[in-house]
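We were asked to recover a plausible sequence for a given structure. The inputs and outputs are reproduced exactly as logged, with field labels preserved.

PROBLEM: sequence recovery
POSITIONS: 688
GIVEN STRUCTURE:
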């Protein structure tokens, strides 16, 4: 894991608001001030990450001198569209997520990277920090303005300019760049650009990743999640003094405290929300909503050195702490944060309230001179799928995720909400349309697509920070599905028309379809795909499945429902020969319908039903074995054996529960389901 460079700030001596002096980098100094080690926030501010670490970057590693072409590369691609890759990127190190090479020179001397990000209101930004993992040197630009440089000489910088040297050592160095706040723009059109330089043309490695941290004015009200997830937001007081006991109570006014996500602390490489060192005790508070009754409560706690926890003012747990009264000077007995400790907190149930609850925690050090402090906590009940606060009452039609942290949900009236913290908070995004949005597809760490009514086709190339129209010109169809194989090749489907692009949406070609009312399309490669929906037959409309093996030039009917009515909402392949079509057996939403082929569509058979008897509106698969289906009345079903058997994880409750329309999984354990009334459900256990 990366570790902060304790001397990094000495590299950044401000000359003007747009440029920072370049000095020889000092050796790490354990006496460096806290401001140099950590990204501390002023009182009454909220920690945000406009650019999170290990996210996607556009990069140019062609081995050409972009500086000779002018400053345009700092805000837009120069030449051909740049490829994207997750950080850390570079070459020559085993921990890199993306390896970059030049076709002409192999290992380029300089690599140019860039990423867009959003800032709601620059006037609310109080502190700005850049955390960088780099080898050997870099210069960064904020919206085209040079913001600083490290391990680089003064003066003009070209492709051949060599760095003075710095080893990445898989750690992030923190720089206070608050002088650059004036260069921020309101909205999604901000650009962070960096040129990463080597110490020699024959250098064996190059490394880059970065994170942008902005402390902004704390809002009047913080979001209240249904449970406390790892990495949740905490109000924190790390400025010394003894707060006695009043701070534990739900009604305590903590608006002067700063707010940051866990893991909180200092001195460890995995810390996200920095706290100030020097005090024996740091005080934390967070609010969550309960909608019991609960059978039990489970806490997962990462801590160093010790803590005491209070629920609505009542002590419910203490670890690595002496018995008896506790003050700000009480020392912990000591504990190292080597992993999350799972604790049964059923003793807290008598103090749990329906509605809002306050969990207060005081974290204590084992010594006044301790080198580190760590705290993070997750608190949840025993239900496998837990509700999250979406911040909207709009019907949500689909959900997609890049990782267990990054997800998007879309729905009625142009609704788009996203999370960057595993669903602890969901924030609304303005995507410039009020049309109902129907489907979303995320291809990799940088690219994604949304389609909806009135011909809406939106694309992102910056991990969802901004969405821009990129559909076929003059087409006003209501699109119902979208799928991309990679950044260039994809399809969008309306109820009667299918369009294909091979150049990232620059051009679209219509593919003729059989007459029908189509609901879903999926391709396993550029040639082979399935189409599902309904076709007019014998004066009625029957569910049908079609297949193409030539990219849609011809379509062959593989299955027709016949007299037994069925309606299919979509299709999901799990391999080149296995696919699942899903839907219902009546317009009322009752009657689970799952069709499966395991021979490329030569035969389709009806899969065994569960006791749920609810229509299936969406499916998600992780590999060929793990599958989930969601549908009418909030039902969720699951298979762990490739669909041979299915079990009910959440039983449908008819009109008493919101119907679920979309499901997506980041891996075998982390999934989201969305539906009516702004419902978002999440599981971190695969629903088990």
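RECOVERED SEQUENCE:
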């Amino acid at each position: 894991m990366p570790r902060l460079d304790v001397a990094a700030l000495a590299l950044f001596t401000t000359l003007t608001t747009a440029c920072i002096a370049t000095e020889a980098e000092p050796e790490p100094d354990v006496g460096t001030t806290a401001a140099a080690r950590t990204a501390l926030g002023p009182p009454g501010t909220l920690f945000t990450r406009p650019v999170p670490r290990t996210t996607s970057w556009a990069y140019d590693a062609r081995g050409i001198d972009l500086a000779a072409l002018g400053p345009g590369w700092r805000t837009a691609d120069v030449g051909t569209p740049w490829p994207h890759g997750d950080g850390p990127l570079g070459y020559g190190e085993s921990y890199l997520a993306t390896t970059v090479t030049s076709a002409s020179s192999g290992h380029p001397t300089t690599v140019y990277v860039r990423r867009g990000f959003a800032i709601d209101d620059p006037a609310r930004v109080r502190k700005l920090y850049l955390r960088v993992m780099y080898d050997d040197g870099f210069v960064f630009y904020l919206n085209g303005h040079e913001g600083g440089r490290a391990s680089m000489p003064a003066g003009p910088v070209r492709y051949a300019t060599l760095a003075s040297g710095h080893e990445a050592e898989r750690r992030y160095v923190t720089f206070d760049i608050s002088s650059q706040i004036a260069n921020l723009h309101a909205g999604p059109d901000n650009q962070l650009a960096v040129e990463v330089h080597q110490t020699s043309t024959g250098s064996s490695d190059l490394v880059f990743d970065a994170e942008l941290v902005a402390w902004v004015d704390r809002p009047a009200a913080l979001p209240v999640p249904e449970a406390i997830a790892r990495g949740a937001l905490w109000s924190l007081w790390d400025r010394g003094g003894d707060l006695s006991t009043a701070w534990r109570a739900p009604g305590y006014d903590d608006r002067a405290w700063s707010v940051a996500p866990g893991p909180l602390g200092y001195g460890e490489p995995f810390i996200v929300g920095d706290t100030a060192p020097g005090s024996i005790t740091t005080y934390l508070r967070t609010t969550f909503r309960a909608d019991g009754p609960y059978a039990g409560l489970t806490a997962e706690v990462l801590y160093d050195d010790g803590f005491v926890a209070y629920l609505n003012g009542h002590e419910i747990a203490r670890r690595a702490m002496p018995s008896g009264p506790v003050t700000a000077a009480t020392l912990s007995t000591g504990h190292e944060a080597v992993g999350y400790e799972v604790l049964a907190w059923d003793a807290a149930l008598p103090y749990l309230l329906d509605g809002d609850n306050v969990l207060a925690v005081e974290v204590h050090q084992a010594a006044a001179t301790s080198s580190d402090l760590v705290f993070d906590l997750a608190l949840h009940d025993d239900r496998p799928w837990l509700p999250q606060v979406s911040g909207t009452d709009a019907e949500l039609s689909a959900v997609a995720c890049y990782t267990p942290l990054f997800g998007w949900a879309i729905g009625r009236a142009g609704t788009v909400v996203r999370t960057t913290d595993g669903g602890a908070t969901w924030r609304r995004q303005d995507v410039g349309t009020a049309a109902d949005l129907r489907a979303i597809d995320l291809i990799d760490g940088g690219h994604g697509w949304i389609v909806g009514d009135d011909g809406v086709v939106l694309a992102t190339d910056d991990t969802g920070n901004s969405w821009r129209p990129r559909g076929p010109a003059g087409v006003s169809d209501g699109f119902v599905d979208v799928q991309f194989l990679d950044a260039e090749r994809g399809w969008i489907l309306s109820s009667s028309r299918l369009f294909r692009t091979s150049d990232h949406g620059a051009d679209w070609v219509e593919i003729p379809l059989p007459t029908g009312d189509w609901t879903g399309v999926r391709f396993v490669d550029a040639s082979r795909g399935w189409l599902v929906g309904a076709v007019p037959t014998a004066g009625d409309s029957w569910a049908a499945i079609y297949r193409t093996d030539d990219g849609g030039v011809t379509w062959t009917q593989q299955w027709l429902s016949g007299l037994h009515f069925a309606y299919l909402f979509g299709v999901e392949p799990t391999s080149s020969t296995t696919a699942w079509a899903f839907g219902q057996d009546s317009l009322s939403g009752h009657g689970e319908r799952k069709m499966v082929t395991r021979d490329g569509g030569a035969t389709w058979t009806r899969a065994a039903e569960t006791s749920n008897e609810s229509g299936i509106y969406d499916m998600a698969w992780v590999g060929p074995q793990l599958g989930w289906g969601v549908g009418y009345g909030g039902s969720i079903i699951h298979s762990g054996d490739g669909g041979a058997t299915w079990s009910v994880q959440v039983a449908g409750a008819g009109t008493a529960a919101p119907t679920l329309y979309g499901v997506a999984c980041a891996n075998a354990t982390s999934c989201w389901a969305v539906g009516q009334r702004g419902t978002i459900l999440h599981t971190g256990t695969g629903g088990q």
